[in-house]
Design brief:
Number of strands: 13
CATH architecture: Alpha-Beta Complex
Strand content: 25-35%
Order of helices and strands: HEEHEEEEEEHHEEEEEH
CATH topology: tt1808, chain A
Distance between the termini: 49 Å
Shape: globular
Low-confidence stretches: none
Strand order of the largest sheet: 3-6-8-9-10-11
Radius of gyration: 17 Å
Helix content: 10-25%
Number of domains: 1
């Protein structure tokens, strides 16, 4: 067997490469990971959810952004692109480029076959180091299902809302929004 050398990058090298790249990559502890494209249902669910949240937040002190806003967690070096995020109050950025957010309040990931285990496991664990984060929401793109995890006053993460039926809903408590599953999954293929 031959050992394969893995090139390690500094965070500064990653940002320089990422800002010039035509595709998105994540960064964690010196390694860069290319992100793959998403399927129709993943994109439909993301758009439906982002639209509802965006309309709800108009004129309020929170705003939503979708998958082109990079988030950095200095405590564990992760740079990533959540499917949807909500930031409440003034956005805090890593630098003057204003392309790397440091203070997301709510992060939503739409689960895909290639990302499901990571989003529910390691990535959730890494997100928990983000001090500003109050809720983490997982929405399935292969079947109807969503879970909302909320950080309590003691810093423990608990399931606060769960839905596996098209007639039910989930609540984003941090902003006071109830999302109907029928709205989240509207116009998806072979899920309704």
């Amino acid at each position: 067997m031959t050992a394969v050398a893995i090139k390690m990058y500094t965070q500064e090298e990653y940002l320089e490469l990422e800002r010039a790249a035509e595709y998105k990559s994540e960064y964690y502890r010196g390694e860069i990971f290319a992100m793959s494209g998403a399927r129709f249902n993943h994109n439909r669910i993301k758009e439906n959810t982002a639209l509802e949240i965006g309309l709800f937040l108009k004129g309020k002190p929170c705003s939503s952004l979708s998958s082109d806003m990079r988030v950095h967690i200095p405590e564990n070096t992760l740079y990533t692109y959540p499917d949807i995020l909500i930031v409440c109050g003034e956005p805090e950025f890593q630098d003057d480029h204003m392309d790397t957010l440091l203070n997301a309040s709510v992060i939503i990931e739409v689960l895909s076959p290639s990302t499901s285990s990571y989003d529910q496991g390691k990535k959730f664990s890494l997100y928990q180091s983000l001090k500003s984060l109050r809720e983490y929401i997982l929405i399935d793109s292969q079947e109807i299902g969503a879970r909302v995890f909320r950080k309590n006053d003691e810093g423990a993460w608990l399931i606060s809302s769960i839905a596996y039926d098209i007639n039910s809903s989930i609540e984003i408590g941090h902003i006071g929004l109830t999302l109907k599953m029928s709205t989240i999954y509207e116009q998806t293929i072979d899920l309704l």
